[in-house]
Amino acid sequence: MKKICVGVTGLGVSDRPMSGLGIAKSLRLNKDIRLIGLTYDTISSGCYSGDVFDEIHLVGNPLQDVQKFFEDIVRLKEKHGLQVLIPSVQWEIPVCSTLKDKIKRKKIDILIPESNNLANVFDPRVAYFASSRYMRIPAYTFIHDRRGLTGKLSSLRFPIIIRDIAENYVAYDTAEAEVFALSHFRYGDSPLCIQEYVNGEEYSVAALADRNSKLTGIVIVKKLVMTGQGIPWIVVSVWDKELVTFTEKLIQHLNWVGPLELRFIKEIFTNHYTFIKFEPCFPSWVYFATRVGQNLPLKAVKLAMGKTVKASTAYNPGYMYVRSAEDIICDIHVLFALTASRRLIYRG
Question: What is the pTM assigned to this prediction?
Answer without folding.
Answer: 0.91
